[in-house]
Design brief:
969 residues; mainly beta; six-stranded mixed beta sheet; 82 strands; 4% helix; elongated; disordered N terminus; binds 2-acetamido-2-deoxy-beta-D-glucopyranose
Length: 969
Amino acid sequence: MGPSRDSLPLLVPAVVALAALMRLSDGKLELKVSQPSVEVMFHENGLLQCEIAELTGSTLSANNLGVLWAFTSDTGNSKPFVYMHGVINEQWKEAELSESSILSGNMSLLLKSVTFKHTGQYRCDVFISPNYKASKTIKLEVLARPTVTVVSEKIVEVGTGGEMALGCQLSGYYPCDSNAEWLQSTPSQGETKLLTDICIAPPVKNPDGTCNVTTEVRLEPHVEDIGSTFQCRVTHKTFSEPYLVTAFVTLKAEIRLATGSIVGSIIASIIISVAVIATGIFLYMRLYYKVAPEVSDIQIPARIVHLEPAEIICHVSGFRPDVILVSWYLKTCKDSGKEFIGDWQKDNMVRIPFVTDRKIEISERIETGRGWKVKPGISQKNGDGSFSISSILEIYPDINEHNKAEITCEVSHPASSEVISKSICLQVEGVAPKLAKIIGPHIVHHNNSVVLTCPIHFFKPRPLRITWYKEMNGKKESLLKLSESKDHFYSNKYSHVANEFSFSDHSHSVYSMLFFNPTIKEDDQSEYFCEVEHISLRNPAKEQIKLQVKAFPSVNAISCEPVNPVIEEKLTLSCKVHSFYPETIIIQWLKDNKVIEGAETSEVILNLENKLYELTSSCTIIPTLLERQSKYKCQVDHQSLLYPRFAEYTPENLVSFPILSEIVCNPAIPEPGKELTLTCDISNFYPEDIQIDWFRDEMKVNDNPKYGNIVEIPSDENGLYKKVTQVTLTPSTDDHQAEYKIEVCHTKSSTKPLKQCFQLFFKGSPKFSEFKLEPENPLYGKPLSVYHSVCGLLHEKITVEWYKASEHVKDGVKISGPVVTHENTYKIDSCLNFLVTAEDFERELIFQFKDNTKSEVFKRRIQLPLKAVVPKVTEIKCDPPHPKKGGNATLTCKIEHFCPVDIHVVWSKGWTEYKNKQIVETPKIDAKGLYSTITKLPIVVGAGSEEYTCEIRHTKTNDIVEKTFILQI
Ligand SMILES: *[C@@H]1O[C@H](CO)[C@@H](O)[C@H](O)[C@H]1NC(C)=O
Ligand SMILES: *[C@@H]1O[C@H](CO)[C@@H](O)[C@H](O)[C@H]1NC(C)=O
């Protein structure tokens, strides 16, 4: 693509400038250009250098970089190269510049095999959005060296009055400025002179843009010129010094005729006379006869574009004399009359032209306010002596003002009494926007913000209507409509920002950016459209992008069952993965980054609430003690993820339950007064922390040295722990039938203690029953029966007695037996009946058994399950009830029905305590089987009212009862 206007309809004259939008910030962008002007020989390659010399505050990337090479020449403007946001929008086919070079900061443009059309100004614009812009201009000149040919006769005879002509032809050179002169060197005179009688035709343009020119010299050589040489001296930009070419011509002396001819002379004179008359007529026709001009239809370019210069030509031809006035007028649709734009005028100039068809440049310019101008026309003298001119009006149309406007060219000439006029109607076009592909991710994440950018480039004039809509399942939904006057949003899900750039050719670019949070339900597999309407578009232009919405899976922490995993026992790990979309997902279980085969995965379910998928995957393992540092992973891979996600679990809290052996007694058969050891092995537990307690009949042995001494021996085995625990004691008859119990609590594995029991039983000793109470819960003041029996007696010589603490009880004792049982042993039953009183509270009831043949005495003890009872206190009474001032009185208070006996009584008056005067009678068992008593305080009655208090504290229950009395006189 060359710099031709037709092939670049969109990019006509343009040098990019930046819009007001792009304000300069703190960073810096500077370009480097080695030479402001470059000269390149025709058909060679030219490099237009443009490199980034300095850039701070930003980096280059395809997304932010724009490079534009703009070209301006006499014939028009174009864009050799346009790069915007990663896309090369325009490129001449002879221009070379790669994207990789651009991204490395080298925007140098290589033009291959340049021709003259490449001559002009090149501007390199670099902009890094949104803040940086820099540009540099380089002038390119294409040069061609002339081919110089000298044309001459070979031999010229001098002295005959004959002329000689020398031609110096320069062809195929550029620029068209050149000079060719003829020099004559005469050796006899020792001088070189410049020949002045020369004739230079204006340079002729070749189709390739180069020029040809011929410089001709005519001279009448004389005898003294014989021996001269003639040289053509050429100066041109491509020669560093003048270039000389010698003509191969030889001047010779004349060869005279011997005789003349009179007749010949007469004939010659007649011929000359006729020639003179003919010449006269010819000159009159050429110089003085007036002819009116002909005006052809106005010529306009095929397209006239908004705010781009265009040339309108009015051809006037065949007029004489060479005097003419061409005026231009404009009539817009709004105006009623026509408006003068400018004119071009030419006065007569009398010249004897050397060459016909000669062109004369007229340098008059008429400027108008709107930048329209009448350019200097080209005047031409025709072969028949008449003249032609072309008047050119350069316009700069505005679509809003000049579309359908009428332009008139008026021509005045002395040979025509009337003004000749031609009109034309302007059709001004805009430039349609060019849409680039919508910029945006094809894969977006559910409920994450996304922006779609629709780049709309190089349109003019400005008003543009942008519509965003989306299509999903064949349903079209409008999202927003943007126009100059008003923006309309159909849904508040969307927001919009437009970034606008303006260029110096008055074209614009807009980046329409749509912001929203896509959701699976509303946006998956939907197509978003950006549609643009513009004055220069018959149908709206649109671009689209298809979205795939995905949701990241969330991976919950791994849970395990049982919570405290047991060594060498099945452990199930479960991992919940949720909120993902689409459904396809890969779950893998790994142990120390190695895949575990055969892990189960449950089915994917759709959560109806959020329309996302979820599943729970489980994996069963059997952990060993060595694996407590192993890492188990539930790894999730999904198309929305760049890297798999995972949850991790390490069975650090592995446990092993303790195993308890039976309690072993040594010696196996205990005897009273002989030391024995009870041993229990606790093994196989993990971790090491363990609590071991021994009990004797529910009493802790640890606290009670008379029950035995405990020894613990720890050890371990294959990483699991073991403990041997022993109780050593010397039993007495009291220990007969005592139960020793071990309780092991390993809280890491279980909250329930493990137990083992062992009952001491002296060989040959009778078997004592448990005590039996009737009623089961004895009450104060009520009768109670306590039963006890002994069996397994080998003979009848025994004594059975009851004691209340140390007091031997004889009343209420009933003994039946001994009787023979079917095992051929004897059995004795005994019962103690009595009325329960407060005295029985916390008192031991002892059943004593004696084998009269032995010295051993067995005692069985029981404490009645009785409760302490808080005293009831009556109101304080005064005796006499109404004592006189200064008289004596006694305050009395009854304390009733309490147990146990201990109470503490304090009398006080106001804040003062009575220490010694108070009387507390000894408590006695009352009718309810509880204690009751009376307290008294003798007083001397004082003046005024006095407050007395009696405070009774029950020591066992710590209960306090307080009574007050106000003594009034
Ligand atoms: C820039 O690119 C041009 C053309 O490809 C090359 O000739 C020139 O050496 C490059 N400049 C630098 C500094 O690399
Ligand atoms: C210019 O000169 C060349 C070489 O003499 C010739 O071939 C060509 O036709 C000339 N061009 C014109 C426009 O006369």
